[in-house]
Amino acid sequence: MSLVESVEDLPLLSRTPDAWAVRALREPLALLNDHAYLEKKAAANALELLNRWPEPAPPDVWTTTLASVAHDEAAHLSSVLRLMGRRGGRLERTHRNPYANALRQHVRKGRGNEELVDRLLISALIEARSCERFLALARATTTTDRELARFYNRLGSSELGHYRVFLMLAGHVLPPDVVDARWAELLEAEAAILAAQSPGPRMHSGI
Asked: Going by fewer Cβ within 10 Å, which terminus of the chain is more open, N or C?
């Protein structure tokens, strides 16, 4: 299956128009700064989840898979910072991500495996939306900035893989029907949260 076909099959309940990418790219350094923080948080999230496996012992793939995801995200962070530096930008000290913060409000904290599944599914949602957004950015830069187009295409492919990984891990925590029901609820929440975001040069900004 090709990457394009796979992205079209993402279960996201809303789609990002190409006009979003055109607008976000009006401030490329601000967009790259936001992107860098996205990768930083993704690496930290994978490392935190690494030792939060379901009792009594981690599934065979748990620690190695999450270590691999953390490695990928740290490598992406390094790539974004190098690209930003070559273009005259630098990482800002502070950053806000209202999209991710709103999604995390849906985590059922203190509820054991339900909390863990929520964290995995929200991670999958963020990766899926990031995949879609990276490919929109790649399309928008195909003829205007070959370096960015290649960069965003590569990251889109990686995020697609990470989305699948987090869904797979959720299936090791609770029965499939329970995971599927919660996934449907969070898909609806994600679409509503994204629709409420203000526009701007952010990876998860509104339309």
From this structure: N
Give the amino acid at 13.
L
Q: How far, in Å, CA of 137 to CA of 26, rounded?
A: 12
CA 2, distance to chain mean position in Å, is: 20
pLDDT at 4: 45
Q: What share of the chain is helix, strand, coil (3-state, %, to 5)?
A: 70, 0, 30
Cα–Cα dist 39/45, whole Å: 10
Rounded Cα gap, residues 198 and 177, in angstroms: 35
53: which 2 tokens? 């496996």
Run of H or E including 178 = helix 176-195
10-residue averages of pLDDT along the chain (207 residues): 58 96 97 97 98 89 97 98 96 93 97 97 98 97 96 96 97 97 98 97 96
183/140 Cα distance (integer angstroms): 30
How many C-beta atoms surround the C-beta of residue 169 within 10 A?
Answer: 25
Q: Which residues contact 45 (CB under 8 A, 6 or more apart)?
A: 119, 123
Work out the end-to-end distance of the chain between its first and last CA atoms, rounded to an integer number of angstroms: 29
